[in-house]
Amino acid sequence: MILGLSLLDVIALVFFLTAWLGFAALLRWRCEYLKVAAAMVDRRRAWMHAMLGRDVRMIDALIVANIMSSAAFFASTAVVVVGALLGVLLNIERGARPSAARGT
Fold this sequence. Notes:
By secondary structure, the chain is mainly alpha-helical. It has five helices and no strands. It has helices at 7-30, 32-53, 58-90, 92-96, 99-102.
């Protein structure tokens, strides 16, 4: 078959790509996510205007720092998880063989 994939693998790949691209097209068509993003921009703008009126801005700085560190932690954790899953998927056949077949 294609690149050594079985018929079932090709069907699964086609289904995945169709679902992925179809979902993206559906979101663009409905534009619901744009409404949420616009609402978040409005909330941030209102928060920033309120922050300008306060004398002590330490709490606002702590909130922004916490949000930034949370996003960085999430991104680094996601990279580690994706790397681990990729390692498992690439070595799944090696781990499935009996130890006598491995030569150990």
